[in-house]
Design brief:
Elements lengths: L2 H4 L2 H21 L9 H15 L8 H17 L2 H7 L2 H15 L4 H13 L6 H13 L3 H10 L7 H6 L6 H13 L9 H12 L4 H13 L10 H18 L6 H39 L1
């Protein structure tokens, strides 16, 4: 028998939700349609359903919570992030965020996976608490599937990037592969990372036992290879230029304030010497990393 005949009746029923709202949205956006459906009517109906279904998040029955979350995720899947901004009001957003957080704190793996699915659609409205729970799932959950889905759906930014980079030492090779693929897909500039993180990527990626992980790392590094070209390293040079400007500024000191400024001037010069030394160290580190990368590329 075909795969459709073998499909569970529950899964067929759940798909009705997605198809229903997809067809309604398609009809509302079709300018040639004779039976015109107003887009505001579609948005109003979606808001009503989301508000109703989100009440299931608070149920003590795990099955009801799962069904509610499943239907909500299928509804959200139909609409673009811009559509959702137009559809959702503050009350519904708050209920979705609170419900998603409660599912992420659940002990049930299936509820966590559904919550991560929902979070991927409402990241524009994400709260700090929701992001914390997603990071916690990615780093500490016992389920490999939960860690994997949390990583895929994680929104990369300055606050979440350090947690993502730690996963380059994840025991599961597929998750390590996803880290490098995510860095490349989201175009995270290598130049924006700390030197210790760049070094970590080079050694944890290029020296991985698994060929797939090494290849994913190389693809990410190739995308950033301009940083390691034979051109002068920009970041350390920028420091040196700013130091020269500061030295020029130091020369413009009022004669009347010269004695008072002397001590502060000596302190500034000492700090400059320290910065120059760090710039030299940084250049050396860049060159060392560059040589390691060129061995593989």
């Amino acid at each position: 028998m075909g795969s459709k005949a073998n499909k569970k009746p529950v899964e067929k029923f759940e798909k009705v939700t997605e198809k229903l709202f997809h067809l309604m949205l398609q009809e509302a956006n079709d300018t040639k349609s004779k039976k015109k459906i107003d887009i505001d009517d579609v948005y109003g109906l979606v808001q009503h359903f989301l508000n109703f279904l989100s009440n299931g998040f608070d149920s003590s029955n795990t099955h009801i919570r799962a069904i509610s979350a499943k239907h909500i995720s299928l509804m959200l899947k139909v609409f673009s992030s811009q559509d959702l901004e137009d559809i959702l009001d503050e009350k519904v957003i708050e209920k979705l965020l609170d419900g998603t957080i409660s599912l992420l704190k659940s002990k049930h793996t299936n509820l966590k996976l559904l919550a991560l699915k929902i979070s991927s659609y409402i990241q524009k409205f994400s709260s700090d608490e929701l992001k914390t729970e997603i990071l916690n799932c990615m780093a500490n959950d016992e389920s490999r599937d939960v860690r994997k889905v949390a990583m895929i759906n994680l929104q990369s930014d300055e606050s979440s990037l350090p947690y993502l980079l730690i996963r380059t030492r994840e025991m599961d090779s597929e998750i390590r592969h996803i880290v490098f693929a995510k860095l490349r897909r989201e175009k995270v500039p290598l130049a924006n990372l700390r030197l210790c993180d760049i070094y970590k990527i080079v050694y944890d990626g290029l020296y991985a036992r698994e060929e797939g992980v090494r290849e994913a790392c190389m693809k990410y590094l190739r995308a950033n290879y301009d940083m390691f070209s034979d051109n002068p390293v920009q970041e350390p040079e920028a420091h040196l230029e700013s130091e020269e400007e500061e030295e020029d500024d130091d020369k413009i000191v009022d004669e009347e304030d010269e004695e008072e400024a002397g001590e502060g001037k000596r302190e500034r010069k000492a700090k400059k010497r320290g910065r120059k030394k760090r710039s030299v160290d940084k250049k050396a580190m860049y060159n060392k990393v560059k040589l390691e990368i060129r061995r593989f590329l």
